[in-house]
Amino acid sequence: MTTNDTIPFVDLVGQYHRYREELNAAIQHTLENAAFIGGPALSRFEGGFAELCGTKHAVGVGNGTDAIELALRGLGIGPGDEVITAVNTFIATAEAIVHAGAKPVFVDVDEATALMRPEAVEAALTSRTRAIIPVHLYGQLVEMAPIMEIAKAKNLAVIEDAAQAHAAEENGTRAGAFANAACFSFYPGKNLGAYGDAGAMVTNDDRLADWVRRFANHGRADKFGHEMAGRNSRMDGLQAAILEVKLRHLLTWSDERRARAKRYDELLKGVSGVTLPKVRSEGAHVFHLYVIRVSKDRDDLRAFLADRNIQSGIHYPISLHLLPAFKDLGYEPGAFPVAERLAQEIVSLPMSPELTEAQQDRVADAVRAFVGGAS
Ligand SMILES: *Cc1c(COP(=O)(O)O)cnc(C)c1O
Question: Strands 169-170, 173-174: parallel, antiparallel or unpaired by DSSP?
Answer without folding.
Answer: antiparallel
